[in-house]
Design brief:
This protein is mainly α. The chain contains 20 helices and 2 strands. It has one domain. Keywords: Membrane, Transmembrane, Transmembrane helix.
Length: 505
């Protein structure tokens, strides 16, 4: 069966009424979460992990993907009207979008962001459907050496791509790898780092760690900064609809942003933040009116927003085909797969094709749902910005606690929720990224297993890890992945910061 056949089969699964309901819930919650400053899709998916434990796997994963897409959509509202990017990927949108809002053109800014996200999401999801089978065919040739090299690549990419310091990212990763050692050794059967606590023999629950780090830690850091200055929402004036001139200036940036964002999202060490910075730089170079940049150029909203959403679809390529998460939300979605006993990778396409293709097809439907939700209901999303933060984060804490109790009613589990929550607070306080800890816990046991298999086959020869072109190539890419994101981020941010400095002058 070709890609079109699989995609048609996936559409049959995705149009099931219950799957459609899960998709609608996901995009609605994701949009609401994206609008609220400081709450990202990773936090929301982490909160829902324990709640969806007993639900249908396909529906739950479709809902998680809908939250991911919806969070990307909703983040533009906060950036444009509040000048407060919820995530690093929305920084560029705030730079031009808020200037448009202050000039009374907040409606067209929101419209070009929503329509650009729709175009990018649609095109990028189709690209995902055609690229994924090719990557799967390549991955089916992997042995233990190649898989271990792939795990090394994953470790390096999440350590270097998250946060502003590769050193801090690596420290966070090693914390996750240390937590992955807790429990029974898969080879010898010996207990490791259990400290005499029987509940730790099964290892650290990924769900508990994710909820604690993302939800509890975030609530603590917000509570610690409760005396900060209140943000002021810029009202949407005039019509939300774009003029003919706005359409003319936006459609090319939408397409350019799509084809910049998708490959960067699909690359290890990619991510939406790098894609948006590069898209902004490309639009500034291609603009017929470069003097408007920094004063509310619509191209500076259209291109980066398209790149933002295209990178979200691109992120699913390594996640679904290789089990390789390149963003914080992808790491939590990987935990969601494992929660249902599923391991993303080439075998998932063979053992659960309906699930995979149904998930891909549901993203096409979710994109249509999102554009319908975003444009007519913009007034409703803006009202969400008025929710007091103490109420919001108190609710998050209650939800996190109840979800953990529901999934695993144990005093030890609640104690770990508190301990890891404090750890998440301290990591945020000192600038250490959270996602590498979760990735280390999830992929650590898999990397250890593949390393042991490779060394057993070669009778302890370490050079076997780079003895094939694929494994050596992946290790080389891992080395580049440690350096390239820092250079790309420095170049992209340098251009944006120089623009901001020139605006102030």
């Amino acid at each position: 069966m070709d890609t079109f056949g699989y995609l048609f089969q996936g559409l049959m699964v995705a149009t099931d009424p219950m799957i459609l309901l899960y998709a609608l819930i996901g995009v609605t919650v994701g949009t609401a979460v994206g609008v609220l400053p400081g709450i990202g899709p990773a936090l929301t998916v982490a909160l829902l992990l324990p709640v969806t434990y007993g639900l249908d796997p396909a529906g739950s994963l479709v809902m998680f993907a809908g939250i991911y897409y919806g969070g990307m959509y909703g983040g533009s509202t906060t950036s444009i009207l509040l000048n407060t990017p919820g995530e690093s990927a929305s920084i560029v949108t705030a730079l031009e979008g808020n200037k448009m809002a202050r000039a009374g053109r907040g409606g067209p800014a929101l419209a070009t962001a929503a329509i650009g996200s729709f175009v990018a999401g649609l095109v990028a999801t189709l690209l995902l459907a055609f690229v994924a089978p090719t990557v799967v065919k390549l991955a089916l040739t992997f042995g233990p050496r190649e898989y271990f090299a792939l795990m090394v690549l994953a470790f390096v990419t999440v350590s270097s791509a998250f946060g502003d310091s590769a050193r801090k990212g690596l420290i966070s990763l090693f914390i996750g790898l240390a937590l992955a050692l807790v429990g029974i050794d898969q080879l010898t059967g010996q207990a490791r780092l259990d400290f005499g606590v029987p509940q730790l023999l099964d290892g650290i629950e990924v769900t508990t760690l994710a909820v604690a780090l993302f939800a509890v830690g975030e609530a603590m850091i917000v509570a610690a900064n409760r005396h900060g200055v209140e943000d002021k929402v810029t009202a949407v004036k005039g019509s939300v609809w774009m003029t003919r001139e706005d359409w003319k200036r936006s459609w090319k940036p939408w397409l350019r942003g799509t084809f910049i964002g998708f490959p960067i999202g699909a690359m290890p060490a990619g991510g939406a933040d790098i894609a948006t910075f590069l898209s902004y730089a490309a639009e500034k170079r291609a603009a017929k009116r470069p003097e408007e940049f920094g004063h509310g150029a619509i191209e500076g909203v259209a291109g980066p927003e398209a790149a933002n959403n295209a990178s979200a679809a691109g992120t699913l390529v390594p996640l679904l085909t290789l089990g390789l998460p390149t963003t914080a939300t992808a790491a939590i979605m990987l935990a969601g797969f494992q929660q249902f006993g599923l391991q993303p990778g080439p075998l998932l396409f063979a053992t659960n094709p309906d699930l995979v293709w149904g998930l891909i097809a549901s993203l096409l439907i979710a994109n249509v749902m999102l554009v319908v939700l975003n444009l007519p209901l913009i007034g409703l999303w803006v009202r969400l910005l008025t929710i007091p933060r103490p109420w919001l984060y108190a609710g998050i804490l209650c939800f996190a606690t109840l979800g953990t109790i529901g999934a695993n009613p144990s005093p030890i589990e609640l104690s770990m929720l508190l301990i890891f929550g404090v750890m998440g607070y301290l990591m945020r306080l000192y600038g250490y990224p959270i996602a590498p800890v979760v990735v280390g816990l999830i992929l650590g046991p898999m990397a250890e297993q593949q390393l042991r298999r490779a060394l057993s086959i070669s009778q302890g020869d370490v050079m076997t890890l780079v003895s094939t072109p694929v494994s050596a190539g992946l290790i080389a890419v891992a080395a580049l992945a440690l350096i390239v994101p820092m250079i790309m981020r420095a170049r992209g941010k340098g251009q944006v910061l120089s623009q901001m400095a020139s605006d102030e002058d």
